[in-house]
Amino acid sequence: EYAPSGLTSRLGTRAGAEMIVSVVSSAPARPLVVSTLGSSGPRRAPWGRCHLSDQVVVRAGKYLGTRAVSTFSSHPRTVSAQQTQAPGLDEETVTRLRADTPGLEGFVERTSEAVAHFNNAGSSLPPKSVLDAQLEYLEREAVAGGYETVEERAEDLQRPYIAIAALLNCDPSEIAIGQSATSMWQAAFGCFDFRPGDRILTARAEYASNAIAYLQAAERTGAVVEFVPCDERGQLDALELERTIADETKGPVRLVSVTHVPTSGGLVNPASAIGAVTSRHGIPYLLDACQSVGQMPVDVEEIGCDLLVGTGRKYLRGPRGVGFLYAREEFVDRTNAQPAMLDLHGARWDSMGTYVPAPGAKRFEQYEVSFAAKVGLGVAAEYALAVG
């Protein structure tokens, strides 16, 4: 399991905390202990820093309780916790990654003990290289001008496409970058022309914004939203998905749209199993991977999704205000998928009565975006690849 809640994060993920500041602190290089002990159920803490005393009990990335005392406060306090090496990272690497994180500087001056940033599921602390890349771009933009800097820094602005494609195992032409993951998800969802009776299938543990969009589309078009039953662990049940699709008493399934790692829990939906079902039936598959990219391996070929959305600000430790979309080339070509609204970046105006969408995923982009954030996203993705 992985940790999508606002105050928890998983230790020892492939590229997440492993992505480093999930549990890294400003104290000398010793990661916080994780004890895989049972509990009667998860407990959620209020917003603020988590200050831990004695032995902290964490299972599958979720705060479950303590053997002694645990306090949650918005004010810095001392931390005393048993320490052990984080799985997947040696002490030297942890030390280097902490030193590479500006957000961990300064805390040592206030307290000699560790302060842990647990809100990576909301917005992670970026490494210095990501911060520097954005500041340098903004400084150049202020001197040279916005459009001129775009031309001058064209190579840097291509880096996020290449790095994200490497993370997801796809071609850079299948990547679009926009103002946020939300805008990218809306562009992907907006390419479907639902009709009365069409079915949109999703999981019971779904991201609220996505669920609202499904219901809005149903209200507007007459489509039907169905929540596929879950298994005993709360994950979408792939066998139930198969049965739901095969129900001939209902309208055609036009889309399966699922959140990979839903917010505020440790659930991970079986993305690859879902993809196997949708592939067999030729049904488009949209995956919201905002809480999984950077925290766990995400391979679009293995998963089999047609569309996937991610963000920079969470486990990739990138900037806010920028997101990305994977759009499978075969799907785009076969369906001529287009967002509900194109602009002159995503299409070419040929004549008074015709336009031609841009090739590949580029059609899902709009021209105006934070170019500094786009550069920062490229650096963040490269950083994640380097960590492994």
Strand content: 15-25%
Secondary-structure content class: alpha/beta
Largest sheet: 7 strands, mixed
Mean pLDDT equals 78
Q: Tags for this entry?
A:
about 400 residues; seven-stranded mixed sheet; three-stranded mixed sheet; 12 helices
Structure description:
This protein has 388 residues and is of the alpha/beta class. Helix content is 32%, strand content 17%. It has helices spanning 91-99, 107-110, 128-144, 146-152, 154-168, 181-189, 208-221, 238-246, 271-281, 300-303, 329-335, 371-387, and strands at 49-54, 56-59, 62-66, 70-73, 80-81, 175-178, 199-203, 224-228, 253-259, 285-288, 307-311, 323-327, 347-351, 354-357. A 7-stranded mixed beta sheet has the order 6-12-11-10-9-7-8, with helices on both faces. It has a 3-stranded mixed beta sheet with strand order 4-1-5, with no helix packed on it. A two-stranded antiparallel sheet has the order 2-3. Helix 3 crosses helix 4 and helix 3 packs antiparallel against helix 12. The radius of gyration is 22 Å and the shape is globular. Mean pLDDT is 78; it is low at 1-86.
